[in-house]
Amino acid sequence: MEENAKSRLLLVIKELQLSQRKFEEQAKLSNGYIRNLKASPSSAVLQKIFSAFPKINKDWVIYGNGDMFDKQTRPTSNTGIPQEKLVPLIPVSSRTDRFDKFYLSVRREECKQLYSPVNGADIAVPITEESMAPEYSNGSIVFLKKLDDNAFNEWGKVYVLNTNNGPIIKKLMPVGNDNSRVSCVSINPEYPPFLVTLKDIYGVYKVLACLSIK
Q1: Model pTM score
Q2: Which of 6, 76, 159, 193 is close enough to 185 for a disulfide, judged by CB 3.0 to 4.6 Å?
Q3: Could you read off the pLDDT of 170-179 as tens digits, one per residue?
């Protein structure tokens, strides 16, 4: 693609993790404006864009000079929070649906974004029952990091499993010499442990932080 103001705006949109439609909405542009743009926007359109996204470096967009964001500013949301500290809140209960099915139907930018108190979190998920109380009580929000290859190698730690029945937050324990299943143990003694077969696990997430709502 030829480098011009349009190509640079497309890079900005990608860096901000927005869809073209969301970018146009925030800049008060007509739907499809970016897609139909030939090369460079008019000065009136640029003024709308820079007003909606004041951190964008005007000289970079128009001429290609300098950095994408003023003073090497990291991309931020319209709340002023760096994008890497914002994670999508997945609005699913502990027994409804798989994360990956949710991702297929809803884009990241359509989710409510939460500020993560820790680095490295990929998503946030609400706790909707009391099996892990008092540490992870109903109404809390956990911030999760997806692990590679279902790698839960620290037994006794709290993980969230992505299963066909929805996300399950539990302490994971081995099942003797049975390498095909894991034991899911609750903190609340009123909830008995149960077994989950590894083939029914579509992803394992490490709990990085828990935000309790008082």
Answers
A1: 0.57
A2: 193
A3: 999 999 999 8
